[in-house]
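To: structure subgroup
Subject: Chain for Friday's discussion

All,

I'm putting the inputs and outputs inline so they're searchable in the archive.
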Amino acid sequence: MTTDLPTTFDLDIQGNFNYYFDELKDKPDFHHIVSTLQTKFEQDLSNYNPILFLYNAMFEAALDGDNMADCKVLLNQLNNDLNIDSPPYIFSINQYFSPFMVNYQYDMLSRNSDFNIQFFPPSVIETAAMTDYICQGLDTIQDIDPPQFNDITQFIKNFIIVKSDTLKAGSTFDAFGFIYMSVFPQDKDAFDALDYIIHETAHHYIYALSTIDELVINDFEERFDSPIRKDPRPMLGLFHAAYVLAKLIHFFEKMINRPDLHTFDLKRVTDRLELYRYQYQEGLAIIEQQGQLTEMGQAVMLASRKLTGL
């Protein structure tokens, strides 16, 4: 296996929007708003904006369904959202997004979780507490594992605070660049924040790889036992989990070796590490027995083995 894993990606989606605008510009009542948006898109958008990934998914669905009513709504909403000042690195979902975009993201997170999730607006105090946890987590990652921190700065544009009865943290390709994190209960703190940050950043790396390679060719409808989920998952889900767990194992091993760089209880770190090693080995065994991977997919699993030393 000689495939080298890419470290940079062309995630510019301006071409997709140029296609959408060309498809819509001659529709009745669409010309003015499309022209306005085309002017805005002539500006430098190469530094990708996660909001564009959200709209990309919505426009694709609307055009595939030939739903011009939805397209008109999306054009106007996109025009409004592009006028919003850049939000801070960490913010509450209700702070900067329109109600339209807030509701879309809630629906998106529920769809990607395979069950209905209830969301509630985070309070100012809850958002401030979560911001502190995330910042502490980021500082610890930067001190212990600078290459991991570089991955975060490459892929993650914003942390969005939500409040949910069931969601802990999440990300999705359709919102590339966002990590969603739910307000913590009293038994969670910055240690859990750094865990979720590494977890979701690893997902982003696989999302990016999937733009250039299929990685897993098992039928998506086929289900397999999952080491980290109660419900059976597609092979792609196990593939994601294995890489995520490998990155976490690699980091927690560094935490144990450098207790001078953090203030967390070492037993807590060791317990988490042992759990993740067990889950990784269980998942990898299923992938090796039943997974159908491309050459690059195999290279990713080889890289995960090197990260874990297992």
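Points worth raising on Friday:
Residues 198 and 248 are 7 Å apart (CA to CA).
The chain has a mean pLDDT of 91.

D.
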